[in-house]
Amino acid sequence: MHLLNQEMNNGLKEQTHHVADIKMFPTFVRSLPDGSENGDFLALDLGGTNFRVLLVKLNKGDVDIQSKTYLIPQRIMLGTGQQLFDHIADCIGKFVRDHDLVGQRLPLGFTFSFPCRQEGLAKARLSKWTKGFRCEGVVGENICHLLHEALLRRTNCDVEIVAIVNDAVGTLMSAAHTDRQCEIGLILGTGCNACYMEKLDNVGLWDGDYDHPEQVIINTEWGAFGDNGCLDFLRTEYDRELDTFSINPGKQVLEKMISGMYMGEIVRLVLERLAMEGLIFRGADRDCYLFERGKFYTKYVSEIESDHDEFFRNTKQVLDEIGVENYTTEDCKIVKYVCTLISARAAFLSAAGLSTLINKKNKSDMTIAVDGSLYRFHPRFHNLMSLKMQELVKPGLKFRLQLSHDGSGKGAALVAAVAMR
Length: 421
Ligand code: ADP
Ligand code: MG
Known about the structure:
Layout: H1 2-12, H2 14-17, E1 25-26, E2 38-46, E3 51-59, E4 62-70, H3 74-77, H4 81-98, E5 106-112, E6 116-120, E7 123-126, H5 143-154, E8 159-165, H6 167-176, E9 182-188, E10 192-199, E11 215-219, H7 237-244, H8 253-258, H9 263-276, H10 298-305, H11 313-321, H12 329-361, E12 365-371, H13 373-377, H14 381-392, E13 398-403, H15 407-420
Parallel strand pairs: 2-5, 5-8, 9-12, 12-13
Antiparallel strand pairs: 1-11, 2-3, 3-4, 6-7, 9-10, 10-11
Bound molecules: adenosine-5'-diphosphate and magnesium ion (MG).
């Protein structure tokens, strides 16, 4: 927590920002929603695993959302920027036709969940790709401009890109719509990231105006914590091996110890090692998925940890699915134990991060909005985090972890709406 706080301060200060791993990007989102936001908005949510187009209707605190999820094929995730944005524009075109919105001029909020340096609410340059993406020719470019050009090329849609936000920011905005105490947003999905409302006086980097309110949401991008080696003392051989075979070696060290894209793989690496040493699955076939990278999904961890008796129904189902044969009840016990250790580590690291932010803000009562499938579906994540935070947060500060419903869809629309308010 001490190290994280130090690294976050380095990110905020002008003198140290350029060498800091944790970038602490100011977002240009200065006001939280107050419930008076109105109108129809398009929203996009590009999160890492899912891509969705949404129609969000805001009406005095009521929210109606229609959405459709589209697939982003791996060849596009690893292709060129033009292919990616053409694909996104095609999906928007389809959505607009299917929802009878052709000809309407709709404001659009874009949840783009990759580290960006914002130059304005609707101007954000990609600082690097993370998670599974690596599209050529996008780093350093203005994402809104790339989308705008693609929309002109591929559709006749009349959309105005009003805001580009990170999913953590969307999650915070979405929860703040109904909860005035909410000032921190956390993502536990494909990746891991957090944002919080900070006083302008503490943001050395800020070069905008100092009008009321004198605050801005900071997108921490804390997934990069440890990229300079400062977390090496607690990384394991499994963390190192996972990193070596990832598409961004040496990058996103904290994220790789926590988030949904990686947690299953860490479990797999431990089980593989135990099997190699003859400690579990004696007689397992070397051809089964246990020995193949990326074939042990994080959702398996949730399923396995949902077993509460000696029958291990879910664990057995997972082992069958990955093709392990002749396992024993003892094997099931060990598999579950490994899962509990690795998910607890992830939850405790997330708790330490949030506690650092809470202690830094030092407000007596706060809500933390959380979104992402790992938090949503893992059976113990919420409780593990809450318990650990009670140990780590300064005595006297109250907090609650609140699941944010459709943070990135509703949140992007709200940022657009607040900007137009
Ligand atoms: P995104 O990050 O694109 O917004 P999600 O929040 O749905 O998408 O997160 C996707 C990640 O969540 C994937 O990495 C996946 O492994 C993980 N995940 C999906 N289902 C579960 C589950 N039941 N338990 C834990 N993790 C899950
Ligand atoms: Mg998401």
